[in-house]
Amino acid sequence: MPKVAIIGLGLIGGSIGLALKRANLPDLEIFGHDVEFGVNGRARKLGAIDKEAKRPAQAAEGAALVIIATPILQVKATFEAIAPALAGGAVVTDTASTKADIMRWAGELLPDDVSFIGGHPIAGKETSGIDAADAALFEGQPWAIVPAISASEAAINTVENFVSLTGAVPTLIDAEEHDSYLAAVSHLPLMLSTALFSVASRSQAWPELAAVAGPGFRDITRLASSNPSMSHDISLTNRKNLVHWLDRYMEELHGLRDIIDSSETQEELIERFATVQTARDAFMVAPPPKPVPEQPTDPMSAGERMMSFMVGEYVVRRTKEVQELMEKRASGELDDLEKR
Amino acid sequence: MPKVAIIGLGLIGGSIGLALKRANLPDLEIFGHDVEFGVNGRARKLGAIDKEAKRPAQAAEGAALVIIATPILQVKATFEAIAPALAGGAVVTDTASTKADIMRWAGELLPDDVSFIGGHPIAGKETSGIDAADAALFEGQPWAIVPAISASEAAINTVENFVSLTGAVPTLIDAEEHDSYLAAVSHLPLMLSTALFSVASRSQAWPELAAVAGPGFRDITRLASSNPSMSHDISLTNRKNLVHWLDRYMEELHGLRDIIDSSETQEELIERFATVQTARDAFMVAPPPKPVPEQPTDPMSAGERMMSFMVGEYVVRRTKEVQELMEKRASGELDDLEKR
């Protein structure tokens, strides 16, 4: 019976468990562990895991796939804790919002006969914790996949297939690129949102401001409700890129401020707003061309998906081809095929 | 037959028409005018207005209530156009996102025997134009009401009742306060969102950034899709307050940047994120205490609402009380009541 381990059962870990359960793979057994008291039991009752593990190593022991969904700074200690228990050939992945430090820790701490493929589901919501877990959280959202240099093709396929099962769109990317890009489109927005809520709510006029705050304000400050330790860990592990983008952003905003402040730049102002509106509307309708990840083109059965999930897609497809070949040989179709 | 005029039939004007129609007031006739070709007919077909007016003055002529929902900078010319046509005692309101300039123009251009009550529905969506109009757009959202000093109590009541009919929450406020508060919670967010989409989309790595942009990025850049001429008009008519808040914001963001950049301020960093998260969560559950607008406490019938809409609530309530008194007198209850 193939074993999968989820270590860290918050919003992300819990949602992964629920999504895997929803995919209805035969014979899959999910072991889960969370450091917080009571969370293991809650995750089992919600149907996110099958078995509660007392320690990370107990969850990881003999697992074909280990998913680490702890806060970023806890991933290092988790690597140390599970390293002795990991089976040879096991595939390990994570869900942290930054990747460069994670890849370095994996290289230092995980055994050589284990494949590490970094992961980052680019999804979330205002609420956190196991009770906010949602099987549909990842549907249609990008999920960055960052293979270690030493990772095998089969291990990459395993993680890609696992990601596809959750409904997310696997996006292969390098760790440095990941952290630089995410600084712009995820970590910078987090800081902008936080700073906006901070400056508004610390104003003396806050009760009056709040009374006229509409849906625009509520939407744009949504990220200010993010888990503080996540924001802290992101700031710490992606400091260089984040500061770079904060500086670029402040330069941009200062330019806009100066155009607004001058009475001689009205045309430039409306042109700027119009350019941005057009670009964003285009982005919402169809994002600019991007590298498309390799995806299976024909649907697989549940059994094939389970097998593919464990051994890599190539082996499954080759097996299927061979089986079809054998069937055709048995039915006498083969001669014709070989003559073509 | 009481006449209402809506001048400007975009998202806001169209939604006001639909909301008034949905309220199902007896004998109400809505005249509408839009400067753009074809919009009048479209608004009538959608059921947002009853009659198409060829010019603003034609719509306003003899109307008990005139609602101006044009772009901000067009409001001045609209005042000039309708002034000669307005009936004595007419109530005029608007929907512009800034109020100080509007109040000044109204004082200069509207006749003395007309009451002007500025208005601002704090609602909206990404799309604009009559085809995006929605009867439910204002439901539960704040709607700022800014009476001119000369406005009568009855005129204020008319506008408050009109706003309540759309489902919005009327919020009485002074023009200077309005513009200062809205600069913080609406116009500043508009600029932050615009600057973020601008800096990301002008980056060389934009296709890669877009590929990993998740729901957080899409939400926080929603306001960058706002109508460019609206953003321009806001910047122009609320320049001083907006620049003030942009400067306060940049100071806040710079402080956050410096804490992130330093390796010695980790505790301060997590504390700051935690403080903001707690404050925003509290805001979402229950906004801080604010001045509560006077609201009718018992429901009125459609006929009472129509009457109240036109003559002011006090008169309707007093009429209702007198009628009840007469009924009680007729049924012999009155002596007991008077003895209490």
Give, in order, the helices and strands of chain A.
EHEHEHEHEHEEHEHHHHHHHHH
Instruction: Specify the CATH architecture of the largest domain in chain A.
Output: 3-Layer(aba) Sandwich
CA-to-CA gap between the ends of chain A? 42 Å
Structure class of chain A: alpha/beta
**What is the alpha-carbon Rg of chain A in Å?**
24 Å
Low-confidence stretches of chain A: 293-297, 336-340
Order of strands across the main sheet of chain A? 3-2-1-4-5-6-7-8
Question: How does this model look, in words?
Answer:
Chain A is α/β, with parallel strands linked by helices and 340 residues long. The first copy, chain A, has three domains: 3-173, NAD(P)-binding Rossmann-like Domain (Rossmann fold); 178-285, 6-phosphogluconate dehydrogenase C-terminal fold (Orthogonal Bundle); 299-340, no CATH class. Chain A has 15 helices and eight strands. Chain A has helices at residues 11-23, 39-46, 56-60, 72-82, 100-109, 153-165, 175-201, 206-211, 215-220, 228-237, 239-261, 266-285, 302-311, 313-331, 334-339, and strands at residues 3-7, 29-33, 51-52, 65-68, 91-94, 115-121, 142-147, 169-172. Chain A has an eight-stranded mixed β-sheet with strand order 3-2-1-4-5-6-7-8, sandwiched between helices. In chain A, helix 4 links the parallel strand 4 and strand 5. In chain A, helix 4 runs parallel beside helix 5 (100-109) and helix 7 packs across helix 11 (239-261). At the A-B interface, helix 7, helix 8, helix 9, helix 10 and helix 11 of A face helix 7, helix 8, helix 9, helix 10 and helix 11 of B.
